[in-house]
Amino acid sequence: MTQALPKDLLDWGSLAPLRLVSQRLADGVYMGVHRSRRRGSGIEFDGHRDYVPGDDLRRLDTRALARHGKLLVRQFETDTDRRLCLIMDATASMTYRSDRAPAAKLAYAALLGAALARITVAAGDTVSLDWLGGKQATALGASGGREAFERVVAALEHAVPGGDEKLREADFELALAPTARRAGRGSVVILLSDLVDLPRHAPQQFARLSNRQRMALAVRVLDPVEATFPFDGAIRLRDSNGGNIVETDATLARAGYLDALEEQRRQWEEALVAQGGRVVTCTTTESPDEVLRRILRAAEGRQA
Question: Could you tell me if residue 250 is inside a domain?
Fold first, then answer.
């Protein structure tokens, strides 16, 4: 059985490059996951998907609009492949790291994202990268091969978390639009996020990326302190943007906080499962190789 990756290796800034750590993680967990499912000459009709801003208007199905009252785009077999579409959350809350954690949430999520990219390109498939929030966050179109992995790693290493406020509904939908255009039949869309600085209807908006042709998967990355709220007595809490400070009694607040955390998970799971998607929850103190296995099981439609 593969040994768990040492936790201190998550601090690649001072101990090891993200490239080496993620490659070791990927190689130890899962290689040769599948053969590419891209097929056909590109002229055979292969179903519909919802229209998203930026789609080629020539692909709109006007008959479907008249019949169903919604904008649908025609897809063909050249739109089908086994593609990984990564969406990284680089909003301010992802910078959090408690004394109990080996890395900030964004660093841990980046390790998982890089390992998933490594597995994808090793299988001969393509990977793309998009962002929620962040500064110096480089989006990458779908590509394959070793160079694609290197580009993903470079983008993950150079991104800086940022954002002064919670994402608005319109901003969140706009951020998902490039992924919606890229994700053809057989694609897996993976959002790596703490799900904190996201708008109210984010679960439903993200779930729309999942249908019979592709799967959407949310990987919820939490700090162990966020997951358990292990405080007692009077405490002062500061929001993720360093602004508002709240003083409260931790013992009295714990039950309400944990209930709200569970309700958030339930809302995301309810929205995604209804569309054939999945939610995987982890903390930054968990063994990355075990979390990666759970993500892969969920992406294959099995219980995570």
Answer: yes
CB count in 10 Å sphere of residue 170: 9
Q: What is the tens place of the pLDDT at every residue in 219-243?
A: 999 999 999 999 888 777 766 555 6
- Residues 195/218, Cβ–Cβ less than 8 Å: yes
Q: 64 lies in which domain range?
A: 39-79
pTM (two decimals): 0.78
CA distance 251 to 162: 31
- Contacts of 292 by beta carbon, 8 Å cutoff, 6+ apart: 25, 26, 29, 30, 112, 115, 116
Give yes or no: residues 108 and 252 share one domain: yes
Residues 156 and 194 placed together within one structural domain of the fold: yes
Residues 116 and 169 in one domain: yes
Domain stop point among 15, 50, 79: 79
- State how far Cα 183 lies from the chain centre: 14
State the Cα–Cα distance between residues 155 and 66, nearest whole angstrom.
Answer: 43
d(CA 293, CA 96): 24
Per-residue pLDDT of 170-181, as tens digits, reads 999 999 999 999
DSSP SS3 for 251 = helix
CB-based contacts of 141-148 (< 8 A; 24+ apart in sequence) = 141/182, 142/83, 142/85, 142/182, 144/120, 145/121, 146/121, 148/117, 148/121
Q: Are strands 215-222 and 140-144 parallel, antiparallel or unpaired?
A: unpaired
Tell me whether residue 304 is in a domain.
no
